[in-house]
Design goal:
- 8% of the residues lie in helices and 52% in strands.
- It has 2 helices and 20 strands.
- The strands form 3 sheets. The chain has an 11-stranded antiparallel β-sheet, covered by helices on one side. A 6-stranded antiparallel β-sheet has the order 1-2-3-4-5-6. Strands 9-19-18 form a 3-stranded antiparallel β-sheet, with no helix packed on it.
- The N terminus is likely disordered.
């Protein structure tokens, strides 16, 4: 890849947007270029025959005594030049390749529940944090479409962070009771861990859909996870878990007048390099 990219980098078009090729990939754009201490950095965009985009980081090194000619394309005539494709992209969003690991050290997993029933005004909409979880994503050089993802969630680590609505604010005692009820509802003693294994990754302009199998409460069922970049190097994954699809009976109180909604929203936000 490096040898092929040298041809692209070494000519007078090195710092110009426009047409170009890199081992069968067509350059479709350019992400930035600057001149700092005699070194120009740019990231040309490439696209292969199946539409997969890549970002190539280009380095143009000049002698300390050389002053670039002031033409419209920076006029750089490099003495040494090379480039390498380092990141496939989701549209214009670069995704790092390699093995990525996430957990409480560089991210947060939240569950959000709602309420239903004639007595719903008494209960609370809850935000519950998972304190023990891990996600591993493997992104090969061929791009996100060939990526795989796995996740493990320890269900005994649920902690209530917030309760909105309800007849009165949540107390610490209420939080403890809710956490105990959640463990009983999920039958954590028999099924302590939920797992996810991806089967397919679909990419869009600025997002991805990771399809796979979620095993929860001893039941395996298909699920889709939506992934989107929130800010540079920060990503958010969201999905909805329907409890009844996994044989889980919704928690209820007051003879069924108050129930937790069947659908539970799941959100994972992670940062790269954390």
């Amino acid at each position: 890849m490096i040898a092929a990219a040298v041809t692209e980098a070494a000519g007078p078009m090195a710092a110009r947007p426009g047409a170009g090729t890199c081992r069968g990939r067509r350059r479709t754009g350019w992400i930035g270029a600057d001149l700092t201490d005699g070194c120009a950095h740019g990231a040309p965009m490439y696209q292969d025959t199946v539409g997969q985009s890549y970002v190539a980081i280009l380095y143009l090194y000049l002698p300390a005594t050389h002053q670039p000619a002031p033409d419209a394309a920076l006029g750089l005539r490099p003495v040494t030049a090379w480039a390498t494709v380092i990141s496939p992209t989701l549209g214009q969003v670069a995704i790092r390749t390699g093995r990525l690991r996430f957990g409480p050290h560089n991210g947060r997993m939240l569950l959000r529940t709602g309420r239903t029933g004639v007595g719903s005004t008494i209960g609370h909409d809850l935000t519950i944090e998972v304190n023990d979880w891990s996600v591993q994503v493997n992104v090969p050089e061929t791009g996100p479409a060939d990526a795989t993802a796995t996740a493990h969630v320890e269900l005994a680590s649920l902690a209530v962070r917030e309760g909105t609505g309800g007849a009165r604010p949540l107390t610490d005692k209420d939080r403890g009771e809710i956490e105990n009820n959640a463990r009983r509802t999920l039958d954590v003693d028999r099924h302590p861990t939920a797992t996810f294994d991806s089967t397919r990754v679909g990419t869009g302009d600025d997002s991805a859909t990771i399809s796979g199998t979620l095993t929860l409460h001893g039941v395996a069922a298909p699920i889709d996870v939506q992934v989107r970049e929130v800010t540079p190097d920060r990503y958010r994954a969201t999905t909805v878990v329907t409890q009844s699809a996994y044989g889980i009976k919704q928690y209820s109180a007051f003879l069924g007048a108050l129930k937790v909604r069947d659908d539970v929203e799941v959100e994972i936000e992670v940062r790269l390099g954390g």
